[in-house]
Amino acid sequence: MAGLGPFGPAPSLAIGVSGGPHSLALSLLAAEWTAARGGRVLALVADHGLRAGSDAEAQGVIARLGALGIPARLLSLGLLAGPALHERAREARLSALAQAAEAEGTPWLLLGHHRADQAETLAFRALRGSGEAGLAGMAPARPAGGVLILRPLLRALPGAIEAFLAARGLEPLRDPSNDDPRFARARLRRALGDPDGPGQAALAEAAEAFALRRKRLRGAVAARLAEAARFEPEGWARLDRRALGQDGVAEAALSALLRTLGGAVHPPGRAAVAALLARGAGSLGGVLWRGGLIGREPARCAGPLPARPGTLWDGRWRVISAPDGAWVGAWGGQEGERGGGRGTLPAFVAAGLPALRDGSGRLLSLPVRDGGAVLEFRPVSGPIA
Q1: Main-chain dihedrals φ then ψ at residue 283, nearest 5 degrees
Q2: Using CA atoms in the order 201, 204, 209, 212, what is the torsion angle rounded to 10 degrees?
Q3: By CB neighbour count within 10 A (0-12 exposed, 13-18 middle, 19+ buried), where does 57 fall?
Q4: Does pLDDT of 383 surpass 80?
Q5: H or E stretch including 370?
Q6: Contact predicate 340/363, CB 8 Å
């Protein structure tokens, strides 16, 4: 955990646990680390619901953690089979883990990625044409909504993790999909060979080098956005195209804007971002840029959801407080609605604002009217740069 803090006294940590070797080892190490500091841990076990018996398997993981003195909670995702299954499962799992960690009051969410995972991530992104930011791989620490994701094992060898569990007399679960050649990541994993070998070590070292370059780029992006953009509390911005520029920093700055204002975990592809930058207007990634204004494209907003404290709507807005039976969805910018009124907001921004309503559909709250007391702009991607 050195270098990932500070944590303060009695830290509260959440851990994403599948029951596999790396998350199981992490849960043990984190439990011992927090116990020595008077803190607490909570294991979060996600069941995707994709395999027969997965629910019983998840309950078995929870029982095993309980026997080790680690409290755990089940997250049932109910994911549907279909294209890009691994990618969709990974995103759904991460979103559910982050939301659960925040709801439980555990501001740090630990994940068990190790050195071979980092090498695999770099190789996978390189094959997909990622730029420098993507080739930096997974960050040891990054914000996700209201929590900070930490990866304490990112430099650990898979073999060392297996040896740690063997010394404790623990046999982890093995996910058969990790070796299923139907999935691209499984095929890549096989092609990369020995997870503790020199080839994967070189890839992991390359990811660290790209991470240093990403850190420098983020500083430049923050400076450029300070010059070119003025952010508004309703989750949009005024963007000066001339101040933004046309160089690589401008491309990275626009990419960060698209990710944050669109409520996305990842930005659109580089080529698409570069094309939008050259045009100076248009829509991409659910974000509309026109007339010096940039914000969420109303037609791409998420559907309505039951509103409970902690609910994240459209990847951008967090419900702070809500009465029973309330729901949140896109407002639509209806000027004549009682309690509404967009004031000086651009029409497309107002249309994409979240509206809190009661069971009868009566408007209860709008960010433009009530500030951040009920609905707060807190995108899943975290800080913009």
Answers
A1: -125, 145
A2: -140
A3: middle
A4: no
A5: helix 367-370
A6: yes
> Could you say which of 3.40.50.720, 3.20.20.80, 3.40.50.300, 3.40.50.620 is the CATH number of the domain covering 12-206?
3.40.50.620
Q: What are the backbone dihedrals phi and psi of residue 275, each rounded to the nearest 5 degrees, phi first?
A: -65, -40
Which of residues 87 and 340 earns the better pLDDT score?
Answer: 87
Distance separating alpha carbons of residues 199 and 140, to the nearest angstrom: 21
- Over 60: is that where the pLDDT of 341 sits? no
Q: Are 244 and 250 in contact (CB under 8 A)?
A: yes
- The closest alpha carbon to 209, from 306, 137, 302, 293, belongs to 137
Query: Taking the domains of the chain in order of start, what are their residue ranges?
Result: 12-206, 216-298, 302-377
The structure tokens 């639509």 sit at 332
Q: What is the pTM of this model?
A: 0.74
CA 128 to CA 120: how far, in whole Å? 12
* pLDDT classification of 252: cutoffs 50, 70, 90: very high
| Cα→Cα distances 286→151, 196, 299, Å | 30, 41, 8
For the cut 80, the answer to whether the pLDDT of residue 291 exceeds it is: yes
Residue 281's nearest CA partner among 310, 241, 244 is: 241
pLDDT at 179: 74
Give the contacts of 17 (CB within 8 A, at least 6 positions apart): 23, 24, 26, 27, 43, 44, 45, 61, 65, 72, 112
Q: Which residue reads 């991530």 in tokens?
A: 121
pLDDT higher for 23 or 187?
23
- Kindly report which listed range (29-43, 45-59, 333-347) carries the lowest average pLDDT score: 333-347
Spatial CA neighbour of 272 closest among 264, 262, 282 = 282
In terms of Cα–Cα distance, which of 121, 80, 71 is closest to 100? 71
pLDDT at 343 over 70: no
Contact 48, 87 (CB under 8 A): no
